[in-house]
Amino acid sequence: MDFLEKLKTVQRRNNSLLSIGLDTDIRKIPPSLRTHKDPQGEFNRRIIEATEDLVCAYKLNIAFYESSGERMWRTIHGTLSHIAPGIITIGDGKRGDIGSSSEHQARSLCGDFRFTASTVNPYMGKDSVEPFIARAEQGAFILALTSNKGSEDFQYLRVSGRPLYEHVVAKALKWNAKKNIGLVVGATHPGELGRIRSMAPELPILIPGIGAQQGDLEASVRYGCDNEGLLAVINVGRSIIYASRGEDFAEKAREAALEFRDRMNVFRKKYFG
Amino acid sequence: MDFLEKLKTVQRRNNSLLSIGLDTDIRKIPPSLRTHKDPQGEFNRRIIEATEDLVCAYKLNIAFYESSGERMWRTIHGTLSHIAPGIITIGDGKRGDIGSSSEHQARSLCGDFRFTASTVNPYMGKDSVEPFIARAEQGAFILALTSNKGSEDFQYLRVSGRPLYEHVVAKALKWNAKKNIGLVVGATHPGELGRIRSMAPELPILIPGIGAQQGDLEASVRYGCDNEGLLAVINVGRSIIYASRGEDFAEKAREAALEFRDRMNVFRKKYFG
User: Fold this and answer.
1) ipTM greater than cut 0.90
2) Which one of A25, A150, A168 has the shortest CB-CB distance to B128?
């Protein structure tokens, strides 16, 4: 199934815009798991089992696994093996290089791990993105306007009267021959999100920054969705996976996920009926 | 020793601006090595042993190791263990993320592997770069103007009358409190390299694009160096490591490296006496 259709299908089936960010920091998981042979993987498995009916996606920031060294492969493969096939998996690596090197990056994220989608940094241009969008059933979320403070350094610079990130959106639309490109727009920029949605009415938008980064949930739903109330992929990480730092972490993660999903759905109903 | 001093020291000692790009593609190494328990690592070891008196740096594009999966750690650690301490090692990962995630990326490249320097994508701004420049003895090369075709998509966009990449250079200068920031400027853009060198007279510039990408070697030396004829780190990958695809690959790599180093030094002598 094509990427876009797969996303819409799971968003409808689970009635959810929620993506859970499995940015699992080995230093933050309950002590009892630290002696497990794969602490991050076991933590993820329990979060997934407790929440998989509530989400449209799981996003794994690759950096959190790279920093654990060699066991990264086992942990990521193990984690992905617990996620049901219909759910979107996002390999959040912020990759991008000259074409021949990007192919190797894509071989890892799209080929080896088989993530449904990757995140890609646009700075190096079209050939850096292409290997990630070579197959229609896998997509790429291109960084447009990120959730962090540093987004102010370059992304807002004005080019021909429009901020740089809008030029990124325009190029993303142009490169989207296989209809498998999405955008990353931080929930910390609600006004800009609305403008980006109007420029790109049919692109999935991955929206990080809810929770610890204090992004705007109502605006993320209102401006992040297409006109059917879909295609916003609203990521929540720390506020869900560390809802409890104790042994009840999975149960508390479910409660937090349910609350986020339902709050999103209240806003969906308000704006999309 | 601080990063900048370390770079100058090895450039003087080996009389070399040459960086060898160990972008070792498992499909391109001699058949006899493919049965080795670590084919890429063994290939790299033999290239390093044949060339280490001729270089100032080795650059490992992380993508070429990620695409080999789990053995990446062994291969990179093994490769780095063969490189003498005075030589600069560059972890070419084009990383960058929100600050808390960039810290995990840096923990891998600067902490686990202990590369002397990393390459970083500037699109996400200051907090995405900071973890890579936290220690004065390790540096970061920030992508300014890349060697690929895609560099035309965004890097040349004009902001207040100047191309975007010059704004990146200006920010890099501003962020350089520890004097450990460098820039990446492709050898395929010789005119722009001169302008960037004049803006940043004291920053190391990593210059990819010589050889397979047909960048301009004379201009890379002339415009890439500081006024002492140092601080250009001119990377050559495929033209050296695949100089022969046979069993004599290491010997032929040495011949190619010697030729590149000496050609660079002819231009150094011409322009810097």
Assistant:
1) yes
2) A150
Assign A58 to helix, strand or coil: strand
For chain B, the three-class secondary structure string (H helix, E strand, C coil) is CCHHHHHHHHHHHCCCCEEEECCCCHHHCCHHHCCCCCHHHHHHHHHHHHHCCCCCEEEEECHHHHCCHHHHHHHHHHHHHCCCCCCEEEEEEEECCCHHHHHHHHHHHHHHCCCCEEEECCCCCHHHHHHHHCCCCCEEEEEEECCCCCHHHHCCCEECCEEHHHHHHHHHHHCCCCCCEEEEECCCCHHHHHHHHHHCCCCCEEEEEECCCCCCHHHHHHHHCCCCCCCEEEEECHHHHCCCCCCCHHHHHHHHHHHHHHHHHHHHHHHHC
Q: What is the pLDDT of residue A211?
A: 83
Q: Which of B66, B97, B157 sits opposite A164 (nearest CB)?
A: B157
**Residues of chain B positioned with their CB less than 8 A from the CB of A96:** 94, 121
For residue A157, pLDDT beyond 80 = yes
Rounded-to-integer distance, Cα B193 and Cα B254, Å: 28
Interface test with A, best of B101, B107, B119 (most A CBs within 10 A): B101
Q: What range defines the domain where residue A185 resides?
A: 3-272
In the annotation, is A269 catalytic? no
With CA atoms as reference, the chain B residue closest to A169 would be B154
pTM, rounded to two decimals: 0.98
- Catalytic one among A8, A28, A94, A174? A94
CB atoms A94 and B96 under 8 Å: yes
pLDDT the model gives residue A213: 79
- Cβ contacts (< 8 Å) between A60 and chain B: which residues? none
Residue A83 and residue A48 in contact, taking contact as beta carbons nearer than 8 Å? yes
> What is the CATH classification number for the domain harbouring A158?
3.20.20.70
Looking at residue B181, what is its pLDDT?
A: 98
Q: Could you say which of A69, A126, A129 has the minimum Cβ distance to residue B112?
A: A69
Number of domains in chain A: 1
From the candidates B37, B94, B171, B270, give the one annotated as an active-site residue: B94
Per residue of chain B (273 residues), give pLDDT as tens: 999 999 999 999 999 999 999 999 989 999 999 999 999 999 999 999 999 999 999 999 999 999 999 999 999 999 999 999 999 999 999 999 999 999 999 999 999 999 999 999 999 999 999 999 999 999 999 999 999 999 999 999 999 999 999 999 999 999 999 999 999 999 999 999 999 999 999 999 999 999 877 889 999 999 999 999 999 999 999 999 999 999 999 999 999 999 999 999 999 999 998
- Report pLDDT for B214: 82
- Nearest CB neighbour to B167, from listed A124, A157, A168: A157
Which chain A residues have a beta carbon less than 8 Å from that of B166?
none
Substitution target in A22, A72, A153, A206 with the highest count of B β-carbons within 10 Å is A153
Helix (H) or strand (E) holding A139: strand A139-145
Instruction: Provide, as residue numbers in chain B, all residues whose Cβ is less than 8 Å from the Cβ of A108.
Output: 63, 66-67, 69
